[in-house]
Amino acid sequence: MKKLRLDKYLADMQAGTRSEVKQMIRKGRVTVNGETVRRPEQKTDPEQDRVAVDGETVRYVAMEYWMLNKPQGVVSATEDRREKTVLSLLPDSARKDLFPVGRLDKDTEGLLLLTNDGALAHGLLSPKRHVDKIYRAVVSGKPGSREQELFRQGLDIGDEKKTLPAELEILDVRPDCSEVEITIREGRYHQIKRMFEAVGMKVLFLKRISMGPLTLDEALEPGQARPLTEEETAALKGV
Ligand code: URA
C-alpha cells in the first residue's frame, strides 16, 4: 500500500475531520513510531508505521471497493458448495475479506459492488436510506401508462407492505416483448420480477445499471471487475 499523509491517514480512520486532525498533529498529540510529529503532510506507511493519538494506537484498515459486471450463472455470495460465486471473478490481488453489497439473482447481470467496508455496505442497504437502483429489463408483453401508474403507486407483491413508488420507463416496444428501465428504492427478494408478475408480465432479462451514485462501467464485459476510482468511492461515501 502506498504511503499516506499523516492527516489523511487519521482522517480516513475517522480520528476527526481533516482540519481537526491537522490541529491534533500541530498540538503534538500524534506520534509516529513513538516520535511526536507536528507536520500533517508527513508521509506515513500504513503497513509499517505505528501511529498513535494521545498514546492510543490508530491502526490503518485498508478498505477495498470493486465494481463487478456480474454475468449470469454466478451467485452473489462469498462461498457456495455447488455454485460459482461472484468472489471467484475477482483477481488474486483483491483482498480476501470482500463481500457483495446486496444480491443480484443468479440470472441477473450487471452492477455489483464488492467491498470489505461493512459500514458503507450497511448504509447502502439500509431500508431507511432509499438508495436508487436502476435496472434495464426485457419483459413479456407491452407495458404502458397503466403499468407505469401501478409502479408509481406501489404494488402488492405478497409482502406485508406495498412496494415504495417506483419509476417505469418504456424504452422499446417490440411485437413479443418490451425493453424497460425501472428505478426502485428498496432491495426486496426478487423485487423486480415480482413487481412485473403483479402486473401480469414476466421478466425475461434483467441487468442492474446503477446503485446510488455508482453507474456500471460499460467497458466492463460481463465477468470483469475493476477497483472503484477515488471519485466513485468518495461519491458512495457521501450517500
Ligand atoms: N430484482 C430481481 O427480481 N432480481 C434481482 O436480481 C434484482 C432485483
UniProtKB/TrEMBL annotation:
EC number: 5.4.99.-
PANTHER family the UniProt entry points to: PSEUDOURIDINE SYNTHASE, PSEUDOURIDINE SYNTHASE FAMILY PROTEIN-RELATED
Annotated ranges, domain RNA-binding S4: 4-62
Organism: Candidatus Fusicatenibacter intestinigallinarum
Biological process annotations from GO: enzyme-directed rRNA pseudouridine synthesis
Gene Ontology CC: one annotated term: cytosol
CDD domains registered for this protein in UniProt: PseudoU_synth_RsuA (cd02553), S4 (cd00165)
InterPro entries for this protein: PsdUridine_s_RsuA/RluB/E/F_cat, PsdUridine_synth_cat_dom_sf, PsdUridine_synth_RsuA/RluA, PsdUridine_synth_RsuA/RluB/E/F, PsdUridine_synth_RsuA/RluB_CS, RsuA_PseudoU_synthase, S4_RNA-bd, S4_RNA-bd_sf
Official protein name in the record: Pseudouridine synthase
Family: Belongs to the pseudouridine synthase RsuA family.
GO molecular function: RNA binding; rRNA pseudouridine synthase activity
